[in-house]
Write a structure and sequence with these properties.
Shape of chain A: globular
Keywords (chain B): Cell membrane, Coated pit, Endocytosis, Lipid-binding, Membrane, Protein transport, Transport
InterPro entries (chain B): Adaptor_comp_med_subunit, AP2_Mu_C_sf, AP2_Mu_N, AP_mu_sigma_su, Clathrin_mu, Clathrin_mu_CS, Longin-like_dom_sf, MHD
Number of strands of chain A: 13
Strand order of the largest sheet of chain A: 1-2-3-6-5
Subcellular location (chain B): Cell membrane; Membrane, Coated pit
Largest interface: A-B, 119 and 108 residues
GO molecular function (chain B): lipid binding
Largest sheet of chain A: 5 strands, antiparallel
Structural class of chain B: alpha+beta
Strand content of chain B: 35-45%
Oligomer: heterodimer
Distance between the termini of chain A: 77 Å
Strand order of the largest sheet of chain B: 11-13-9-8-23-21-16-19-18
Distance between the termini of chain B: 47 Å
Number of helices of chain A: 40
Helix content of chain A: 40-55%
Shape of chain B: globular
Membrane topology (chain B): Peripheral membrane protein
């Protein structure tokens, strides 16, 4: 209230009757005084008092104590006073529900008033009073108002249905208001239509499957007619609603587009953007060879450019959207580069966005202009902007090969300015240029090395170290340079530490003679003095590689790196499609799906672009549909995932290509999706390049035997750690059966569950993929097991934190314990599972490989083994044949060890290898085995001895599965 | 939809707060103040997300208007609405200032109640609003008046009421253009465009049907060369219209027909990039003499008919931050070094076409050890010329009012062209 008092002191305009004086009530006994004034007989005084109350309310004072007094003023002919009282009511009714009932009579009476303005006011205000008891009284007046003769009342009543639905959805359905609302879509008055559409769209959002809007060619036609006649806001409601419709074929799609295009000339930018959304969406359905298709493309460019002459805030919204449009359909704006040039006076948020789009539009045709601009920007004041400009130069080099040389020389010029952050940024991008064009621009390394001391940001330091390591053979003093970083090793960030480790190993592999000491030093720093598991693990891997097989080490560390892609930070295709469906909205501004920032069920429904269903191409459409639906990997492998990239890690590409946009969506569902994509990519890449190479396999396989015993444990764990990250089965790890479908969607109302079991670092995990193939959102997942042979039970709740939208998939891994209730099952490894969600409970049964239960300390002492073997009666022995297995005994033994089947001894008799093995189950049962392998014979014989012979069959199955995979 | 709307003064104190949705609480008011208004940093985005709540803001002088929501709203619509809200307030009580807002807070609440229902923007045409939101207390309206109001607010022609009468039917057309230029030091045009507006002030009786014509290339070409009567046509890149213009008709026939609102309205906005007449050319010459001195010479040339006069010419030459003193000599007008603005400002009242003028300045610099180079902001220019730099010409504006007894010939029409500088910059 301070300003209010000040205002009072220097009020030169005191002579005029102004409202600001109401902000200046005295503080003492204020409420008491107001009470008296409110109950005054004089109308003027009453009104004054109510104004004071509203002023206090505005600044956040609690004036709820005056509730009865204010409500008493409600019965009045004075419209202004009435509105003020209503305003008060809307604010405080919720805190005083009983008192609010007092007002009901007046509302009901006002709804019958002769003046349509009063009727509308009453119904509008009543909807804003969020008290359950009032809603009952609201129904009758609302019903009347929905059918009022005056359009002004009807349009207000239409919105009121949405209000009521927000308070009590059931009531609205029971009272049949939704049907009345639907009827209003055919109203003669365009504004009533628009408000009805808005209300229905909002209600439909919270009932994704209700088909409330029931859009069909007839209703669409009505909407398109109303579009020409209603207010600018109404046009937005209608266009946004149209965007949810999927036309039946290309012809319908074209005719809608034709009727929407005139909106592109509207003065209101929101109308334009919503029209663009409808066109972008429906265009998907048009055949590309159609003349109309190219006409439409041409028509879209000018209005998008015009949006850039709007006010800066709108420009920002427009630019964020253009960023999406350019990614989806680059052809629309490819000739419009100049309009995205940054103006000196643009607000920073507009500048940054323009820069992004400039890079996306850069091509051979315009690169000269773009570079000249970027160079200008690099000398500006705003640090973020300058950095981005420098990065942009690097990205141009990567994108347009012909310009690479000029970009590099521009970057060198910039490095000469010695402006600290410019230099660092330039070095980061030059690293990427090296990656893209190997062996082309290395002459600049000398210049880069001069700036070594000025680098203080981790990213720049890491980039520089990468360059030194990568080109160690061409830099005379590479060892000195790297050594200088080593001094403060523990103060560096992880990124720099990892990079330094790798760079020195590379250096060692290239110049082994002089750098042995250095590599020893860095390995011991990384493995012994560091608390960081990533660093330690990487250190151990290098150490083992170098100590066992330097040739393999060379192949791994100095492997040829995949080229980086031209376009970085592209939005993932499925997300892009969804965002295109949200043009103009907040989602398109944040570049995140609505589910990432909207609470509750609203907006969780994922929108997608329609598939093309031309008359001649209908056969093709299902494919298009699924491709759009969610299988991103088809397009993905060409793009190197830019963050947290495991493959990159191993191949020492620590730094991802520059990324600016697209912060990872915060929901777990999304992250899981990302992981999946990564895993898939990694799997295929590893399978092709590394897993297949025998040198590599041998290197890893032989390692444990050679390792000093003390190191054994941490390495094993570390390895597991490292490989577990992406959920990728490495050849060496425990055997994990492929995922199979346990519960088909048909049997579970659209929920599909597939999965497998794995044992990771001593923990049994059930790995599940839940896919929602229904149309509605699934929530509240839970899981339970029936009693089973080994007492398996979930060790925690099923971690599905976000609701699962239609066509969404989530990967969950559920840790299991073995302390649950036990009941013998048939077959022994059968597991009955119940999964519950918001829809129903579903049951299925699956079988787990018994190897999940093999514990890590299952290695028996030789003596004990011998004694036990003798001790178990021969009746308990069972023999099996494993056919078509081509491993030699050592490979078999190491493979089995991965699944905790330990070889205790080996004997060779007449060319036949006899392996003696022990297994311990989680419930303490020991299984002893003798595996006979004859060279040249692909059939193995296995004898199992166990005190509980029932398990033998299952154990045998495990042998077979492990050895054959 | 919009969940709430707040207006703050520059200190972050709330002047107006209206909440439309239950999911927006009073704490949202404070969240915006703390995170945006009181934030030390410069505003990095007009949309801010704080704890899953999105805030849209615009600033008018030192007043902040913020719209709040928790849903995935149409962002473009929210900003359009905020601008519209500013327009409505300006139309009611003039400049948007703390004082005016406080003086009219009851009115503002009443307006907000009317133009935003449950967060959905409703009819916000000032013309319509002024018929029933009057601030004069009760006005006993007759039944006809009431239904006239409601049918206007919801009607197809929501921007004009019936029964308007003038003794003299008159209309004024202003073609207002702002010409934008970015030129390289070598005189190469990096980008140039004109953004223009056609503003119409009409005082016409009844419900007049109007038709507007200009030298649009597409229309002229369609009519054939014979109809062109020597009038140069221009290529319009894009145009947008006031909501009174029938867009589907424009789309089909490219004719601009409408029933105008009474009084002033912005009929059309357009943009052109081809064949722009650049009224001035700026030729800069900056020479660094050692580390402590700069020599600047700037020549401006006017490039239009000698019979026309440009006005309010102002050239702004930026100077480095470490400037200690400046000596200026100019041939025409007055020039001054303004230390607070880090610029030399050279003003010329009038200048005819096809002339040139020159300024030279010596800038003394304080020696600094700041490594960062001076960014050399571009030289900018302001002016006003009595023609349209895009070349746009009004060909006709016909008025038909079939019900009343006046014809197109009886309407007095005035047309005026004003070209102003937008962002008119030359890099140096």
């Amino acid at each position: 209230m301070e300003w209010a008092n000040q205002l009072c002191e220097n009020r030169q305009f005191g002579s005029k009757m102004t409202d600001s004086k109401y902000f200046t009530t005295t503080k003492k006994g204020e409420i008491f005084e107001l009470k008296a004034e409110l109950n005054s007989d004089k109308k003027e005084k009453k009104k004054e008092a109510v104004k004071k109350v509203i002023a206090s309310m505005t600044v956040g004072k609690d004036v709820s104590a005056l509730f009865p007094d204010v409500v008493n003023c409600m019965q009045t002919d004075n419209l202004e006073l009435k509105k003020l009282v209503y305003l008060y009511l809307m604010n405080y009714a919720k805190s005083q529900p009983d008192m609010a009932i007092m007002a009901v009579n007046t509302f009901v009476k006002d709804c019958e008033d002769a003046n349509p303005l009063i009727r509308a006011l009453a119904v509008r205000t009543m909807g804003c009073i969020r008290v359950d008891k009032i809603t009952e009284y609201l129904c009758e007046p609302l019903r009347k108002c929905l059918k009022d003769e005056d359009p002004y009342v009807r349009k207000t009543a239409a919105v009121c249905v949405a209000k009521l639905h927000d308070i009590n959805a059931q009531l609205v359905e029971d009272q049949g208001f939704l049907d009345t609302l639907k009827d209003l879509i055919s109203d003669s008055n365009p504004m009533v239509v628009a408000n009805a559409v808005a209300a229905l769209s909002e209600i439909a959002e919270s009932h994704p499957n209700s088909n409330l809007l029931d859009l069909n060619p007839q209703s669409i036609n009505k909407l398109l007619t109303a579009l020409n006649e209603c207010t600018e806001w109404g046009q937005i409601f209608i266009l946004d609603c149209l965007a949810n419709y999927t036309p039946r074929d290309d012809r319908e799609s074209q005719s809608i587009c034709e009727r929407v295009t005139p909106r592109l000339s509207h003065a209101n930018s929101a109308v334009v953007l919503s029209a663009v959304k409808v066109l972008m969406k429906f265009m998907e359905m048009l055949p590309k060879d159609l003349d109309y298709y190219s006409t439409l493309l041409k028509k879209l460019a000018p209005p998008l450019v015009t949006l850039l002459s709007a006010e800066p805030e709108l420009q920002y919204v427009a630019l964020r959207n253009i960023n999406l449009i350019v990614q989806k359909r680059p052809e629309i704006l490819k000739h419009e580069m100049k309009v995205f040039f940054v103006k000196y006076n643009d607000p920073i948020y507009v500048k940054l966005e323009k820069l992004d789009i400039m890079i996306r539009l850069a091509s051979q045709a315009n690169i000269a202009q773009v570079l000249a601009e970027l160079k200008e920007y690099a000398t500006e004041v705003d640090v973020d902007f300058v950095r981005k400009a420098v990065r942009a130069i690097g990205r141009c080099a990567i994108k347009v090969e012909q310009s690479a040389e000029r970009c590099v020389s521009t970057l060198l010029d910039l490095i000469q300015t010695k402006v600290n952050y410019v230099v660092q940024e330039a070095i980061v991008v030059i690293k990427d240029i090296f990656r893209k064009y190997p062996n082309k621009y290395e002459s600049v390394i000398a210049t880069l090395c001069e700036n070594l001391d000025s680098l203080d940001e981790p990213e720049a330091r890491a980039a520089m170290i990468w360059i030194v390591g990568e080109y160690a053979e061409r830099i005379d003093n590479a060892d000195e340079l790297l050594e200088s970083f080593l001094e403060g090793f523990h103060d560096e960030s992880t990124q720099v530490q990892l990079q330094l480790l790798t760079a020195i190993v590379k250096l060692f592999l290239k110049k082994p003679t002089e750098t042995q000491e250095l590599v020893q030093q860095v390995l011991s720093l990384a493995t012994q003095d560091s608390d960081n598991p990533d660093l330690r693990d990487r250190g151990y891997i290098y150490w083992r590689l170098l100590s066992t097989d330097p040739v393999a080490a060379k192949e791994v560390v100095l492997a040829e790196k995949p080229l980086i892609s031209e376009e970085t930070d592209l939005i993932e295709p499925t997300l892009l499609e969804e965002l295109i469906c949200h043009i103009g909205t907040l989602a398109s501004v944040y570049h995140k799906p609505p589910s990432a920032f909207v609470e509750g069920s609203r907006g969780v429904m994922h929108k997608r672009l329609p598939a093309r269903t031309g008359s001649g191409e209908s056969t093709e459409s299902p494919d298009v549909g699924t491709a759009a639906g969610g299988s991103a990997p088809e397009a993905a492998p060409s793009i190197i995932p830019s963050q947290g990239d495991l493959l990159g890690d191993l191949l020492n590409l620590d730094m991802a290509p520059p990324t600016t946009s697209g912060p990872p969506p915060p929901t777990t569902g999304m992250q899981m999706g990302g992981m999946d994509l990564l895993g898939g990519g990694l799997d295929s890449l590893l399978g092709g390049d590394i897993g297949g190479s025998p040198a590599m396999g041998a290197g890893f396989g032989a390692a444990p035997a050679v390792m000093p015993a003390s190191l054994n444990a941490p390495v094993g764990g570390g390895l597991g750690d490292l490989f577990d990250l992406g959920g990728v089965g490495m050849p060496m790890g425990a055997y994990i059966p492929p995922k199979i479908v346990w519960l088909p969607a048909m049997k579970a109302k659209g929920l599909e569950i597939s999965g497998t079991f794995a044992r990771r670092a001593g923990v049994i995990q059930m790995e599940l993929i839940l896919t929602n193939k229904a149309m509605s959102v699934m929530t509240d997942f839970a899981i339970q097991f029936n009693r089973n042979s080994f007492g398996l039970a979930p060790a925690g709740p099923l971690q599905v934190l976000t609701p699962l939208g239609p066509n969404q998939t989530i990967e969950v891994s559920l840790p299991l314990s073995t302390v649950g209730p036990v009941m013998k099952m048939d077959p022994l490894n059968n597991l009955q599972v119940a999964v519950k969600n918001n829809i129903d409970v579903f049951y299925f049964s699956c079988q787990y490989p018994i190897s999940m239960l093999f514990v890590e300390d299952g290695k028996m002492e030789r003596q004990v083994f011998l004694a036990t073997w003798k001790d178990i009666p021969n009746d308990n022995e069972s023999q099996f044949q494993i056919k078509d297995c081509h491993l030699n005994s050592d490979a078999a033994s190491s493979k089995l060890q991965g699944s905790n089947i330990f070889t205790i001894a080996k004997r060779t008799v007449e060319g036949q290898d006899m392996l003696y093995m022990s297994i311990k189950l989680s419930n303490g049962i020991w299984v002893l085995a003798e595996l006979r392998v004859q060279a040249g014979n692909s059939n193995y014989t296995i004898s199992l001895k166990c005190r509980a012979p029932e398990v033998s069959q299952c154990v045998f199955q495990c042998y077979e599965a492990v050895l054959k995979n | 939809m919009i969940g709430g709307l707040f207006i703050y003064n520059h200190k972050g104190e709330v002047l107006i707060s209206r909440v439309y949705r239950d999911d927006i609480g009073r704490n949202a008011v404070d969240a915006f103040r703390v995170n945006v208004i009181h934030a030390r940093q410069q505003v990095r985005s007009p949309v801010t997300n704080i704890a899953r709540t999105s805030f849209f803001h615009v600033k008018r002088s030192n007043i902040w208007l913020a719209a709040v929501t928790k849903q995935n709203v149409n962002a473009a619509m929210v900003f359009e609405f905020l601008y519209k809200m500013c327009d409505v307030m300006t139309a009611y009580f003039g400049k948007i200032s703390e004082e005016n807002i406080k003086n009219n807070f009851v009115l503002i609440y009443e307006l907000l109640d009317e133009i935003l229902d449950f967060g959905y923007p409703q009819n916000s045409e000032t013309g319509a609003l002024k018929t029933f939101i009057t601030q004069t207390g009760i006005k006993s309206q007759s039944k006809e008046e009431q239904s006239q109001i409601t049918s206007q607010v919801t009607g197809q022609i929501g921007w004009r009421r019936e029964g308007i009468k003038y003794r003299r039917n008159e209309l004024f057309l202003d073609v207002l253009e702002s010409v934008n230029l970015l030129m390289s030091p070598q005189g190469q045009v990096l980008s140039a465009h004109v953004s223009g507006r056609v503003v119409m002030k009409s005082y016409l009786s009844g419900m007049p049907e109007c038709k507007f014509g200009m030298n649009d290339k597409i229309v002229i070409d369609k009519q054939g060369k014979g109809g062109g009567n020597g009038c140069q046509s221009i290529a319009i890149d894009d145009c947008t219209f006031h909501q009174c213009v029938r867009l589907s008709k424009f789309d089909a026939e490219r004719s601009i027909s409408f029933i105008p609102p009474d009084g002033e309205c912005e009929l059309m906005r357009y943009r052109t990039t081809k064949d722009i007449i650049l009224p001035f050319r700026v030729i800069p010459l900056v020479r660094e003499v050692g580390r402590t001195k700069l020599e600047v010479k700037v020549v401006i040339k006017s490039n239009f008919k000698p019979s026309l006069l440009a006005q309010k010419i102002e050239v702004r030459i930026p100077t480095p931050l470490n400037t200690s003193g400046v000596q200026v000599i100019c041939m025409k007008g007055k020039a001054k070094y303004k230390a607070s603005e880090n610029a030399i400002v050279w003003k010329i009242k009038r200048m005819a076409g096809m002339k040139e003028s020159q300024i030279s300045a010596e800038i003394e610099l304080l020696p600094t050890n700041d490594k960062k180079k001076w960014a050399r902001p571009p030289i900018s220019m302001n002016f006003e010329v009595p023609f349209a730099p895009s070349g746009l010409k009004v060909r006709y504006l016909k008025v038909f009012e079939p019900k009343l007894n006046y014809s197109d010939h009886d309407v007095i029409k005035w047309v005026r062209y004003i070209g102003r500088s937008g962002i008119y910059e030359t890099r140096c």
